[in-house]
Design brief:
The complex is a heterodimer. Chain A is α+β, with helices and mostly antiparallel strands. In chain A, the strands form three sheets. A four-stranded antiparallel sheet of chain A has the order 2-3-4-5. Chain A is globular. Chain B has one helix and eight strands. Classes of the chains: A alpha+beta, B alpha+beta. Chains A and B meet through helix 1, strand 1, helix 2, helix 4 and strand 5 of A and helix 1, strand 1, strand 2, strand 3 and strand 5 of B.
């Protein structure tokens, strides 16, 4: 009996060890990557990714696929422009070519173009997500933000999305739950206590 | 009688081991469901202005990040680098990918001065 019980305990310990290894943090080998072959400028990265696509063709596709891009260009506030410029690492001499304001249930956004990059910018604080203009014209763009307490707890997640014309709803997932939100004027937004993922855009 | 006790002991042992295996399977099953777990990368590391911290490559489908002093950008090396930036201190940003794959999570200090950064990866 002793031997059997000992075997059972050893098996339990081994299983627990496997579980712990799988779920514990693993940042012991993290390193500063200055000098490593890792792109650090969002600007350089997008320009490189879109190098084969003519700017005019990508911009035309964006206008064709998103009604908001066909509206009269507005002007992003100077402070927000500076924030976007710093976040992206935009070189001096490259200016904002156009900017379109979008209103969502969770606040305003700006859609802006800089050469081959198209970005969605949160009007409140300048959080942004960018991709190549050609990609945004085809698939839209998502910006996922949240607040953080001093203790490092993440809360108040908000997903902002940009969707091509013809998209009526966006199906989102929060944990194991699915929900749909209405797309208005090429934009949609939703908030939740946990991370929100875009599952698909629906016509 | 002696053999009956022995058989019972073996039965208890086998049942115990089976229970542990079932618990393990249940835990693994829940971990691989759509509710992903998280683990940290570059957590509490000070990154110089313009610098980037890279975490250890792991199976992930999303990266979170925030900075204590100002905004940061997050992404993975395999997807070309940082693709989304937070709005400032106390605000985070999350970049999600459509599938789980082994990727190297990155957090980039897009400010001019050092900040302590916090990265979290979305794992199965």
């Amino acid at each position: 009996m002793k031997r059997t019980m000992t075997t059972a305990v050893l098996v339990a310990i081994a299983m627990a060890a496997v579980i712990l290894v799988r779920t514990s943090g693993d940042d012991a080998g993290d390193r500063g990557a200055a000098g490593a072959a890792v792109p650090t400028s969002l600007w350089d990265q997008i320009q490189a990714a879109a190098a084969g696509t003519p700017v005019d063709a990508a911009r035309a596709a964006l206008r064709r696929n998103l009604r908001v891009a066909r509206t009269t260009s507005g002007r992003m506030p100077a402070a927000l422009q500076a924030k976007v410029r710093a976040s992206l690492g935009v070189p001096a001499g490259v200016s904002f070519e156009d900017a379109h304001r979008l209103q969502t249930s969770r606040g305003a956004l700006w859609l802006t173009n800089l050469r081959r990059a198209t970005c969605v910018v949160q009007a409140r604080d300048g959080a942004l997500a960018c991709d190549t203009t050609a990609h945004v014209a085809r698939r839209g763009l998502v910006l996922n933000v949240y607040a953080v307490t001093r203790g490092g707890r993440m809360h108040d997640f908000v997903l902002f999305g940009l969707a091509p014309d013809g998209t009526r709803r966006a199906r989102l997932r929060v944990g194991d739950h699915r929900r749909e939100v209405v797309v208005r004027g090429n934009a949609y937004a939703a908030g939740a206590a946990g991370p929100i993922a875009l599952e698909r855009l629906l016509g | 009688m002696h053999s009956t006790i022995r058989l019972r002991a073996i039965g208890v042992g086998v049942l115990g081991a089976a229970a542990v295996v079932l618990l393990y399977v249940a835990l693994m099953g829940s971990a691989s469901s759509s509710t992903a777990a998280v683990n940290e990368y570059c957590n509490n590391q000070s990154v110089a202005g313009g610098g980037t911290c890279a975490g250890v490559a792991r199976n992930l489908n999303g990266v979170y990040g925030w900075g204590d002093s100002h905004s940061v950008c997050v992404g993975t090396a395999e997807t070309g680098g940082p693709t989304a930036c937070s709005g400032g201190p106390g605000a985070g940003v999350l970049q999600q990918y459509g599938n789980f794959a082994v990727r190297t999570p990155l957090i980039h200090n897009n400010g001019g001065s050092a900040t302590v950064v916090h990265g979290v990866a979305y794992i199965p």
